[in-house]
Amino acid sequence: MGGRVTRVFRTFNVESRARKALTEAAGAVPSVPHRCSSRCAVADSSEIKEEIQRKDNRLLALLKDVYVESRDPPIRVKDGGSEHLPCKQEEKRLTKLGHFGALDVKKVSKGKISIVEALTLLNNHKLHPQIWTAEKIAAEYSLELKDVNSLLEFFIPFTIEEFPKETKKAIKS
């Protein structure tokens, strides 16, 4: 609670206080320059100007001997004329469609599966492990065998069990 109160006072009228501090700093007296810097600059300025204006014939002769030859690399015309760089094209496969129609994913990259397909293959393997082996699943869904083995080992679908009515105990009051 105390932090909120102090924050209010700290941030009160911050912009105007900052402007005031900046204008005061701008109106401050600048520091005195070094005594040699002003005298040396005036004395050397005329010598420097003369040095700049004077032509050096030896350097001019060397410059005339320089010959630069430049060639641009040949221009390649892109096929298709699109402005975007081509991206890596992935092979796609059609999915085994689920029960959701328009919400289902239609195409999936090879080596990947959709959620509906994952649940379907896990359920098929659970119900018929002799028919739906890891090799058959890998071939059916274009997956790697080690990925399918890991999937079957670590992901197990839930089971719904219903108890018969006669085994339920009724609470009597």
TrEMBL record:
<dbReference type="InterPro" id="IPR009622">
    <property type="entry name" value="NDUFAF4"/>
</dbReference>
<dbReference type="GO" id="GO:0005739">
    <property type="term" value="C:mitochondrion"/>
</dbReference>
<comment type="subunit">
    <text>Binds calmodulin. Interacts with NDUFAF3.</text>
</comment>
<protein>
    <recommendedName>
        <fullName>NADH dehydrogenase [ubiquinone] 1 alpha subcomplex assembly factor 4</fullName>
    </recommendedName>
</protein>
<comment type="similarity">
    <text>Belongs to the NDUFAF4 family.</text>
</comment>
<dbReference type="Pfam" id="PF06784">
    <property type="entry name" value="UPF0240"/>
</dbReference>
<dbReference type="GO" id="GO:0032981">
    <property type="term" value="P:mitochondrial respiratory chain complex I assembly"/>
</dbReference>
